[in-house]
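User: Earlier you gave me the apo prediction for this protein. Now I'd like the version with zinc ion bound, so I can compare the two side by side. Same sequence as before, with the ligand SMILES added.
Assistant: Got it. Here's the input I'm using:
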Amino acid sequence: MLSDRQITSRRLLLVAAGMSLLGLTGCGRGEEVAKAAAEARSAGPEPAPGALPTAQSSMTPTADPTAAASTAPASPSAAAAPVAPPASAPAAPPAAAPSAAATASASASASASASATVAPAAAATAAPAGPEPARAPAVAEAPLVYELDAERQVVALTIDDGPDPRHTPTVLALLEQYGIRATFFLIGENAAGHPGLVREIAAHGHHIANHTWTHPDLRNLSEAKVRDELERTSELLHRTTGKAPTWFRAPGGDWSPASLRVSAALGMRPMAWSVDPRDWARPGTGVITDRILKDVRPGAIVLNHDGGGDRSQTVAALKAYLPVLIDSGYRFTAPPG
Ligand SMILES: [Zn+2]
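And here is the structure of the complex with zinc ion:
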């Protein structure tokens, strides 16, 4: 489809990688490959950063960060490979190193490859990164974001499954005490039951993001049902706060090709995480705290929960680890909205 284009040797590599990706995503076999990869990942103990090829279903060869990373190794800002290379691209580099530059930071210094990883809406309006005119499709799927800019000592705290009247107010008070902005991935039906809490989260300056309406395993749902889960939640959050969410997280981190397509179509980027203390399993406050302090690093996206059950261990862990991180020089940030 691109044979009529004037391309440089670098572009040729990008196109070749992109074509292989199109082959992955355009047929049933591709879906199976992606699904198998997602299942293999979910069977592991923890979601490894950069371990999910399902996000590599971009319809734009030049928007493929893996290909870009493989052809532009000299550019520091081009080193981000937020997702693992697909099986059909053995020449691609290994999955993103833990310290890989963020894809979501969308820094002003974005290179051609970095600019290709910004949100669909931004990509559609951005000036062409290369000498050729942009041919972005109407909806481009953004890659999963596992970390932010590793060159800055920042941490993004993300808090899932609320709002919950038992724990969310305490978490908000803690965050205010330490001057921290966080991102709350809200479940639609919880938000519908506690609209005042939703507004309170927003009033504190935190990001409010979409975590589906009922917290289902999206891999088991039709695309129409996935759309219903996401769209209903976005509409409610928009009505409640006056702002539509721009980030989406699949329950359990169980992304599916359909969820990535739908979230992109609804103007949301998919956010994963790089530090998971598995607080939802209530392993003990000390364990939660230790896991976070052991795994945190610049650019980390930390996963915590303020809903879905008794989260008192998480609240206690926040009290313990937030001051430690601050004393260590970390600053907390909410990803760009
Ligand atoms: Zn969740």
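For your comparison, keep in mind: Confidence is low (pLDDT under 50) at residues 1-138.
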